[in-house]
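Deliverable D4.2, example record:
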Amino acid sequence: QVQLVESGGGLVQAGGSLRLGCTASGRTFSRYVMGWFRQAPGKEREFVAAISWSGGTTYYADSVKDRFTISKDNAKNTVYLQMNSLKPEDTAVYSCALDGEYVPLRTLVTAARRYDYWGQGTQVTVSS
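Output generated by the structure prediction step:
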């Protein structure tokens, strides 16, 4: 089993920044991808960003590209999501997830159904 624990959510004004962290423990995989998804009240869960096991490939939703940056620290088993220029529409519960069978196709990486392990989520609220 894999345990994913998110941190770093909170309340911030529009234009501000937050950094989310997701620390993994338990079972290890040789080729995996870790992603961030978010879900706002009354809306479906949507893909935000993902990073390959090597850190060499990243993926972003168009809505966050150029504002958010995903990165990973292998020594700490942690993936980060740096969120800048936050907007009220970024308000959501953010969850990290792990897919232990990474296939480098955007259509698969962005699909929540591919991810077997999920964190509990952390609330991000952006005030206008």
